[in-house]
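ok so I'm stuck.
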Amino acid sequence: MPLNFKFQNKKFNTIDICGLIKKIGEIEHKRTVIETRSAELEHLIGNFDKNADYHFISVTGGFDCVNFIDFIAKREHVEKMLIATLRVGDTEIKHIGELCDNGLIDSVDFVVSKTFARVDKKYKYFNFLKETAQPRNWRIAVVNNHSKVILFKTTDNFYVLETSANLNTNVKLEQFSLISSKDLWEFYNQFYGEIIKRG
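replied:
not stuck anymore, here's the structure
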């Protein structure tokens, strides 16, 4: 059975390649980029089948992890979300905070890398994450982490996003798999949940 791909042509290093999404101009504000890319992802997925698995490749300047968070949170109430990532961007921290404040997400746990915490003197993103987390009761664990997984427990479903991308506004070629599976969710949740407990 042939694969069904949705492609848009784009230029990259003077070579014509196929991309899943058009590049967003670098001069656009990051906030506009999140909204635009979320709309593009929604258009790409089309009629969402909650029981299907979706696999994506995002080209340079394409969609990011935060767009999948947007996608799920705007369709189903997220009771619990766990994010394992190397680092988190400030725009993404602020956006997730707003999703929580608007009642779309109840709780968030983060498993981030020691590198992210260590370079905080330069970027201040880790400190911003802690400041944003405190009034919302988000939990943060700092370990030697390089994994990138996002778990969603919604009112009715369990989703896992496996990806190569960090939770920041990315400019690289990345892969994403959005999987609807309680078994896979429980596999990851048991492991990362233990890390969160130990703090």
